[in-house]
Amino acid sequence: MRVFALIAGILCLFIALLDAFQTIIMPRRAIGRFRLTSLFFIATWRPWLFFARRLHHARKRETALSFYGPLSLVALLAIWAAAMLIGFALLFYAAGSPFNDAAHRAGFASDLYVSGTTIFTLGLGDVTPLASWARVLVIVEAGSGLGLLAVVMGYFPVLYGAFSRREVSISLLDARAGSPPTAAELLRRHSYAGGEQALSVLLTEWERWSAELLESHISYPLLCYFRSQHTNQSWLAALTAILDASSLLISGVRNNPARQAQLTFAMARHALVDLAQIFGLSPEAGAPDRLPPERYQKLFSQLCQSGVNVCRDDFSSERLREMRSLYEGYAEAFSGYLSMPLPPWIGDQPHKDNWMTVARLRERAEQASAPDPTRESEPQDASFVVPNLIDHHHDF
User: Fold this and answer.
1) What are phi and psi of 99, to 5 degrees?
2) Which of 199, 307, 357, 381 is deepest in the core (most CB within 10 A)?
3) By the 8 A CB rule, do 216 and 277 touch?
4) Which among 326, 343, 342, 333 is positioned nearest to 250, based on CA atoms?
5) Are the C-beta atoms of residues 24 and 151 closer than 8 Å to each other?
């Protein structure tokens, strides 16, 4: 029995410390499917998702899902601490519970008590070790507990810093591609004179964003469960919208930053595929087509009306379908796993478009400031009234 306790204690400590090291400290993909962290997510995410989906109100459902990421972080810390506590207690028990306990007979209960007070550095002193090696082990446990606390204190700022950097770019995409972001809206809002250069800069920024997403979320997969703070926004929807727009630029739009679109597409797809492998997700083959032929024709018409120079050959739709096959299966798999809806190719929800409102106001301001040779002075336009720009869809 004592030998079994010794082996079990060593295993508990090894598993807990290795899992904490791989999750917090090691800046690369963790190895092993039977890690504590992996088993925790397998055991808790599906039930949480099941009960959250039972909520019929969309806002309450999203709020419930948003609690999982932060709570799972706290739960993982508790699991690591509990595993270390039990591991040291088993080591004490395997050595014959070498403690002086005035209130109770020394046994496994005393071992647990000493291990708990030691790992949390309480140092009550009501139970004291009898052997010299037991005192050494108590000191080692106290140092381990203090080290875990120090590592966790450094882990939180890194985690939330990566989350904040991710969300800033997603919020900026709102004014450039709508809410939720769509490829059609992104190209439409960059169809003005000089928009090609602005679109190239935007794609360059999202190439870097995708690389940062890949590096941070492979090191800390827990961030994938952290949801955006605003309605109709998520890291998966933003990444998919950029992939959609890049695919469209590569396969069916002329006079565009095609080279930068290829680089952005490659990086964004790399991030999506690698993250899917982290979670063991295979491409979803039976998902509904996000862009059936009739929707493609509508997309084509909208782009033409917006002044986008689209390719008019008979194979543009087939080229786009080939591009979509490289990433849509992984995006659908992630969408089903995380319950994050993918963005449409064309916005279907009619709502007040503040982007157009602001654009019209700017056009009127330019017209008002332009010199008129027929009149000596420009009368003030009394009808120039700034409308209410509040939009609950975050669409600027």
Assistant:
1) -135, 155
2) 199
3) no
4) 326
5) yes
Element containing residue 70 per DSSP (H, E): helix 58-94
Torsion sign, CA atoms 354, 335, 48, 40: negative
Is the pLDDT assigned to residue 347 strictly greater than 50? yes
Those residues whose C-beta lies under 8 Å from the C-beta of residue 77, and which sit 6 or more positions away, are 152
**Rg for the chain, CA atoms, rounded:** 29
What's the rounded Cα separation, in Å, for the pair 384 and 379? 12
Give the span between the Cα atoms of 100 and 97, in whole angstroms: 9
Q: Domain ranges for the chain, please list them.
A: 2-130, 160-338
CA–CA dist 379, 368 (Å, integer): 9
Read off the pTM. Answer: 0.82
Q: Are 269 and 236 in contact (CB under 8 A)?
A: no
Tokens for 167? 């969300």
* pLDDT of 194 strictly over 60: yes
Q: How confident is the model at residue 384, as a pLDDT?
A: 37
Banded model confidence at residue 316, pLDDT cuts 50, 70, 90: confident
Indicate the pairing of strand 99-101 with strand 127-129.
antiparallel
